Amino acid sequence: IVGLRPTAGLLSQQGIFPMGNIDGSAGPLARTTKDLAIMMDVLISPNNRNKKSYISYLNKDGLRHKRIGVVQLVGQVEPFRKLSPDVKQQIDQAVDLMKQQGTTFIDVNLPEFDNNRKDNQAGEIEDINLYLSSFPSTRESFRDICQSDRTRNFGDKESCLKFMRSIAPKSSQSYKNALNAIKKNKDYVHRMMKKYHLDALLLPLSTEAS
């Protein structure tokens, strides 16, 4: 399976439940890279549509002479350290395949990356309430979801309400801190990629992958 996390704002978020809006981005999943390109042509917002189809950018030799950084440290986290042998084997196989196609891999550390996400849900309740009020729905607000006592994602009713009250609003310093951290991380990663002449970074999505 092939997935793509598009640049924020490239695809419309309309109809997507807005949890993780502050640093999230919806994207397609497909069986092949070509299918992914076709889906991007269909999904992309008209305001961001390129004159050329994404399919026209497909290149069988696209990995030749590319440099990929294998992230061994991000902040204080070693993303590869706790991988199960099966997952590590799959990653190693993918790396070997890309090497055969002309890709160079180098180990990279990103010690200054801020991986503290404690503020990244700030403003989320407001986004959810706006989403639920934008069209006829069974639940009118996040509080209504909690009081229905029909969701277990946030525990029982009281746990759900406690979670709701713990989320800082968009007018808070927490929201500003999250936006600043995201920008700082983005600038830092771009700077490091430029320093090592990298085209992409490789690391597992979860440090507990199994």
Question: Could you explain the architecture of this structure?
Answer:
37% of the residues lie in helices and 10% in strands. The two termini are 17 Å apart. It has 210 residues and is α/β, with parallel strands linked by helices. It contains six helices and five strands, in the order E-E-H-E-H-E-H-H-H-H-E. It has helices spanning 33-43, 85-100, 124-133, 142-148, 157-166, 173-195, and strands at residues 2-3, 29-30, 67-74, 104-110, 200-202.
Give the termini distance in whole angstroms. 17 Å
- SSE succession: EEHEHEHHHHE
Task: Give the neighbour order of strands across the main sheet.
Answer: 4-3-5
| Uncertain runs | none
The gyration radius over C-alpha positions equals 20 Å
Helicity range:
25-40%
> Given the structure, what is the number of helices?
6
The proportion of strand residues reads 5-15%
Sum up the overall morphology in one term.
globular
Largest sheet: 3 strands, parallel
Summarize the topology.
Layout: E1 2-3, E2 29-30, H1 33-43, E3 67-74, H2 85-100, E4 104-110, H3 124-133, H4 142-148, H5 157-166, H6 173-195, E5 200-202
Parallel strand pairs: 3-4, 3-5
Antiparallel strand pairs: 1-2
Task: Provide keyphrases for this structure.
210 residues; alpha/beta; 3-stranded parallel beta sheet; two-stranded antiparallel ribbon; 6 helices; 5 strands
